[in-house]
Amino acid sequence: MKLCTKCGKPGKFRKGRDVCVVCSHAKYIAWRKKHPDYVRRSNLSRWKLTLEKFEEIKAEQNNSCLICGREFFETPAVDHDHKCCPSGKSCGKCIRGLYAVLVIMG
Q: DSSP labels for the chain?
């Protein structure tokens, strides 16, 4: 039985790895917490946004959602907020709002 070189416990391993998936994930989470600016810039690059442009857009919207007008109390989602719907799946409000914005903006 293979043991993790980090925690010493048996577990699931990715092919060719000596560290279990639990320890590997913990390392990944720790790295993300240590490098929040890099993570944020990387996430924004999906939408071809720089951190500076993102902050500019947020300021133009008075730190509020363009669709519903609610003020942001934490870093806002760029496309839509998956936490807004109780079931974790979109209730449709976000998607309809985004679609309306896209149609209006052309």
A: --B-TTT--B--B-TT-SSBHHHHHHHHHHHHHH-HHHHHHHHHHTTT--HHHHHHHHHHTTTB-TTT-PBPSSPPPSS--TTSSTTSS--SHHHHHHHHHHHHH-
